[in-house]
C-alpha cells in the first residue's frame, strides 16, 4: 500500500481549486474579472474617525466602502464574523442575513474563505464586547485565494519560509510591513538631508568593465555583443568622483551594489548603499554630515534620537566619538603601534595576542587585524574610527603629518560598520602609485585588491578639487533604526539559495 504523501497545504489547495471550478460552473461567477473597487476609507481611517462610537451603537448614516483580505472567517447560522485586513490595519466584520439579504448571505457562506480578497460595504458599529466593527450590507469576492494562509492563519514564524515567501510573510505579520514603511521613511529622510544641502541625485552605471571604488570581490557577467566580461558594481565612488571633476558640484547616488562575498546577519550580496561627494570639503565635514543624516533619519522614522537595537540602547543625540585606530588598539590591547618600528615586531606582537600570521604582513596589516579581532565588537555606541593605514586605503588622502595613514574614517555601531568616508585622494601621481600597489597585490592572489583604472587617473589628471566623500550602508542603518536582527529582515527579497 502506498503511503499518502499529500501535505495539508496541498489538500487545501486541491479543495480550493475544486471550489473555484464549482463557483464558475454553478454560479457563473469569475472572481478574477473585477478591475476596480471604490475604496473610500482605510481601516485605520475608520478607527480614527469612529473611535467615539459607544457600545451597541450603530452609525447607519455613515456608509463605508473598504477592501482587503479576510484573515479569519467564523461562519454560523444567520450571523457570521470575519476579520479583514488592509495595508493599514485590521477590523472585525459582521455578516447578518437580514442586512445582506438571503442571496448575498448565501453567497458569502458558501463561496468565501479566509485568504480571499473582498470588497465590503456597510456601516460602523461597536459590539457588546466593545469592538469596533463593520456591519456588512454587501460583500463582493474580488479575488479567490487558492493557497491557504500560513500555519492555519496563526502567523508565519519559520524564518526560512518568511524570507523565501516574503509576500506571505507580509500578509501574516503586519509588523514586517511596518519595518518596510520605516525603511521608506529612512531613505526619504536621507535624500531630504542631502538635498537640503544642495546635493544632486545622479545615476551611474551598474555594469562596468572594471569593478572599482572598494576592495571587494565582484560578480562577473558577459556582454555578448561586445564579447566582453563585465562586472556588477561594488561601489559608485569612481563614477561619482568623475562627476565632481566634471563640475557637477555636490552629488550623491543611492542604489544597489553587489559583492560576491559571504552571507550572514550583516551581509547580503545585493545591498543598498548611498555615496555622496562634496567638493571643497574634507573628512571632518563628512563625519558631521554622517551624524546629521543618522539623527534626522532616526527622528523621521521613530520620533526619537534614542533607539533600541536588540536590547542595547543607542544614544544618537550625543556627538559620536572620534578616535584613531592606533589609539583604539592602545586603549583595548595596550599596544602602541606608533612605537613599533618594523613589520617583524608587529607580527611578533600579533602572535603573542593569539593571531595567526603568515609571515609577510606589514605592521599596518597587523594593526587592521587587531582592530578587527579585538576592537570592533566593543564599539557599541556610534564611534568614528579614524586614521586608516595608507596601504589599505587606496583612494584616501594621506595625513600630511603621518603619511603612512590617511584622513579616513569608518563609523561603527554595535560592532558593525555602517559608514565609510574620507578626504578623497586627488593627487594623480600618488593615485597611480597606489593603483600599481593594488595591481601587484591582485597579481599575488588578492582577489579583493582594487583594479587599475587608467581612465579614473585620466579624470583626476583633469583636476579633482579637494573633496570629501561618504558611503553609508543603508540596509545596516535601517537595521539599527528598526531593531531588526538581520539584514534579511530589512531587505524585501534577500538572496536565498534555491530549494533543491
TrEMBL record:
<keyword id="KW-0460">Magnesium</keyword>
<keyword id="KW-0479">Metal-binding</keyword>
<dbReference type="InterPro" id="IPR006195">
    <property type="entry name" value="aa-tRNA-synth_II"/>
</dbReference>
<dbReference type="GO" id="GO:0000049">
    <property type="term" value="F:tRNA binding"/>
</dbReference>
<feature type="binding site">
    <location>
        <position position="410"/>
    </location>
    <ligand>
        <name>Mg(2+) 1</name>
    </ligand>
</feature>
<protein>
    <recommendedName>
        <fullName>Lysine--tRNA ligase</fullName>
        <ecNumber>6.1.1.6</ecNumber>
    </recommendedName>
</protein>
<dbReference type="GO" id="GO:0005524">
    <property type="term" value="F:ATP binding"/>
</dbReference>
<comment type="similarity">
    <text>Belongs to the class-II aminoacyl-tRNA synthetase family.</text>
</comment>
<dbReference type="GO" id="GO:0000287">
    <property type="term" value="F:magnesium ion binding"/>
</dbReference>
<dbReference type="InterPro" id="IPR004365">
    <property type="entry name" value="NA-bd_OB_tRNA"/>
</dbReference>
<keyword id="KW-0547">Nucleotide-binding</keyword>
<keyword id="KW-0067">ATP-binding</keyword>
<dbReference type="Pfam" id="PF00152">
    <property type="entry name" value="tRNA-synt_2"/>
</dbReference>
<feature type="domain" description="Aminoacyl-transfer RNA synthetases class-II family profile">
    <location>
        <begin position="180"/>
        <end position="498"/>
    </location>
</feature>
<dbReference type="InterPro" id="IPR002313">
    <property type="entry name" value="Lys-tRNA-ligase_II"/>
</dbReference>
<comment type="subunit">
    <text>Homodimer.</text>
</comment>
<dbReference type="InterPro" id="IPR044136">
    <property type="entry name" value="Lys-tRNA-ligase_II_N"/>
</dbReference>
<dbReference type="GO" id="GO:0004824">
    <property type="term" value="F:lysine-tRNA ligase activity"/>
</dbReference>
<dbReference type="InterPro" id="IPR004364">
    <property type="entry name" value="Aa-tRNA-synt_II"/>
</dbReference>
<keyword id="KW-0030">Aminoacyl-tRNA synthetase</keyword>
<feature type="binding site">
    <location>
        <position position="417"/>
    </location>
    <ligand>
        <name>Mg(2+) 1</name>
    </ligand>
</feature>
<keyword id="KW-0963">Cytoplasm</keyword>
<dbReference type="GO" id="GO:0006430">
    <property type="term" value="P:lysyl-tRNA aminoacylation"/>
</dbReference>
<keyword id="KW-0436">Ligase</keyword>
<dbReference type="GO" id="GO:0005829">
    <property type="term" value="C:cytosol"/>
</dbReference>
<feature type="binding site">
    <location>
        <position position="417"/>
    </location>
    <ligand>
        <name>Mg(2+) 2</name>
    </ligand>
</feature>
<keyword id="KW-0648">Protein biosynthesis</keyword>
<dbReference type="InterPro" id="IPR045864">
    <property type="entry name" value="aa-tRNA-synth_II/BPL/LPL"/>
</dbReference>
<dbReference type="InterPro" id="IPR012340">
    <property type="entry name" value="NA-bd_OB-fold"/>
</dbReference>
<dbReference type="Pfam" id="PF01336">
    <property type="entry name" value="tRNA_anti-codon"/>
</dbReference>
<dbReference type="InterPro" id="IPR018149">
    <property type="entry name" value="Lys-tRNA-synth_II_C"/>
</dbReference>
